[in-house]
Automatic annotation (TrEMBL):
MF terms in GO: kinase activity
Organism: Kiloniella laminariae
Gene3D superfamilies: 1.10.287.130, Histidine kinase-like ATPase, C-terminal domain (3.30.565.10)
Record EC number: 2.7.13.3
Listed PANTHER family: SENSOR HISTIDINE KINASE TRCS, SENSOR HISTIDINE KINASE YKOH
SUPFAM superfamilies referenced in this protein's UniProt entry, alphabetically: ATPase domain of HSP90 chaperone/DNA topoisomerase II/histidine kinase, Homodimeric domain of signal transducing histidine kinase
Domain Histidine kinase: 294-517
Record protein name field: histidine kinase
Location of the protein in the cell: Membrane
């Protein structure tokens, strides 16, 4: 198949089919989906790796901090085990001595026999707090579940990483809790660390809440939005190009052009070439139409002269001169054949022009079909055929009147040629939701099921042909291009045609055309 025929098939029927794999490889949408998957997968993998590294770092830091808290608790153990009234007075000074700028201590006590969180008393704290602040802090620690194990037993040596907000609004980190059992009751030493020492750290909070992760997520999200916007911009312009191409094909584009619709500077050369291609196609269509008419006129003039010249010859050649009469018959049949070929060539060229630039105007298909059926009434009567019609009124389509006439003529002519005398040909025009459905049904021999698609190919015909006087095959009007022209014209104006064998004998040709918008 040459380039020209391949392009015409693609334009008319979208016959180029690519495998799903080929479409996926070249699809912009598929690439965008892959890009989205990568954008989600890479951060997820990196997040897990960095989170694990952060956990390892937390483990090292907290172990050091907790060991420091345990040492402070052990330093306080002798004082707490021998606790008396004087010890309680010395306890605030002792924990102040042990505490540092970033490290703090909280001392809790549960007397023997006390149960529940209300039996736990806040004894001392460094940094020091007022009585009211101690009460509020105790309530906060209860809400955080710090006392849960303490109220059940006094066997506690619990590492923690719990962020805690003091009543003053200062945040600190509870790093360890150590219980010391004495005769008087259970003492608990809670070591704390200033949150400022872990600023930006994930200790005591989910890793995704850290400042570095949130900044990285913001940058990554910004990149994703920019890239998505770029893809959307290209997709939007491609959609504009598609809509404009459809508008040009359907005759709704007006004076618009690809350059006008384009918004992406990098696509300007593409839009410019599309405009040039469209202009070239329109000019080619006009040239083909003019050439078709000029050629038909140029050929028909000498053919008409030859036919006129045959009239005196027919009168002068005696009927007994069989050889002369046979020669005249051969010439007349050859003239018929030439005239048919000229008409066929004109239709082919017009069809090619319609494919390039089909005319578009609002045509009342119902009225046109009624007029044509009335003109065909003589042909039906001459062949002894019965015409049945059922036509919905007010159906309009966007097409050229000549294009529609050619479609209807070829379909009806096909039914006339195939129908035996005395049978019925039915013509129906129905109003679909968005389409006009034209169906012509005959009672002819039909077509083998395997050949239903082939009848729309060029030079394919299943009609019976009579030999010429010289013994050669006489194509007559059976050149096999009628239904080919039907399909080309129908597809050129955005419709489709199909052939079906009738269950009780005969053939149905159904044409579906998009209706015009009211």
């Amino acid at each position: 198949m040459n380039t020209k025929s391949a392009l015409s098939q693609t334009a008319a029927g979208y016959k180029v089919r690519r495998s799903p794999l080929n479409r996926a490889v070249h699809s912009l949408f598929a690439k965008f989906v892959i890009m989205v998957l990568v954008f989600f997968a890479v951060p997820a993998l990196l997040y897990q790796e960095f989170r694990q590294a952060d956990l390892d770092r937390q483990h090292i830091v907290l172990n050091a901090v907790r060991e420091q808290g345990r040492l402070m608790a052990e330093s306080l153990r002798p004082m707490l085990e021998s606790a008396g009234p004087s010890t309680l007075l010395e306890l605030p000074e002792e924990i102040q001595r042990l505490a540092t700028k970033n490290n703090g201590i909280k001392i809790l006590f549960r007397p023997i026999g006390e149960q529940g969180s209300q039996g736990v008393f806040f004894v001392a704290s460094e940094p020091r707090l007022s009585t009211d602040a101690l009460r509020k802090e105790k309530e906060t620690l209860i809400e955080q579940g710090v006392f849960d194990n303490l109220t059940a037993s006094c066997l506690i040596e619990r590492p923690m990483a719990l962020r805690h907000l003091r009543p003053s609004g200062i945040e600190e980190l509870l790093t360890s809790m150590t219980a010391i059992q004495t005769e008087a009751g259970c003492w608990v030493v809670i070591a704390t660390q200033s949150a400022e020492a872990f600023l930006g750290s994930s200790i005591g909070q989910p890793y995704w809440k850290t400042l570095e992760v949130q900044i990285a997520a913001g940058i990554y999200l910004g990149m994703a939005l920019i890239l998505t916007f770029l893809v959307f911009t290209v997709w939007r312009d491609l959609t504009r190009f598609r809509d404009l191409a459809r508008g040009i094909r359907e005759g709704r584009a007006g004076k618009s052009s690809f350059s006008v619709e384009n918004r992406v500077p990098e696509l300007e050369p593409v839009a410019h070439e599309f405009d040039k291609m469209t202009q070239t196609l329109q000019e080619s269509s006009d040239s083909i139409r003019r050439a078709a008419e000029d050629n038909a006129h140029a050929f028909k003039t000498p053919l008409a002269i030859i036919r006129q010249a045959l009239e005196p010859l027919n009168r002068t050649v005696d009927l007994d001169n069989k050889r002369g009469r046979r020669a005249l018959q051969v010439v007349e049949e050859a003239l018929d054949r030439l005239e048919n070929l000229v008409s066929t060539a004109r239709q082919l060229e017009h069809t090619s022009a319609e494919l390039l630039n089909p005319p578009r105007e609002k045509i009342d298909l119902s009225a046109l079909l009624l007029r044509m059926l009335e003109a065909y009434s003589g042909s039906f009567n001459a062949r002894g055929l019965i015409l049945q019609s059922a036509i919905d009124h007010g159906i309009t389509v966007l097409a050229g009147e000549e294009v529609l006439e050619t479609i209807i003529e070829n379909i009806i002519d096909n039914a006339l040629e195939a129908s035996p005398r005395g049978t019925t040909v039915s013509v129906e025009l129905m109003n679909g939701k968005k389409t006009a459905e034209l169906a012509v049904r005959d009672r002819g021999p039909g077509v083998p099921g395997s050949e239903l698609e082939r009848i729309f190919e060029r030079y394919v015909s299943y009609r019976e042909r009579k030999p010429m006087a010289d013994g050669e095959d006489n194509p007559g009007n059976h050149m096999g291009i009628g239904l080919w022209i039907v399909r080309r014209n129908v597809e050129a104006i955005g419709g489709f045609v199909r052939a079906e064998n009738r269950g009780d004998g005969g053939l149905s040709l159904v044409v579906s055309l998009p209706q015009s918008d009211d």
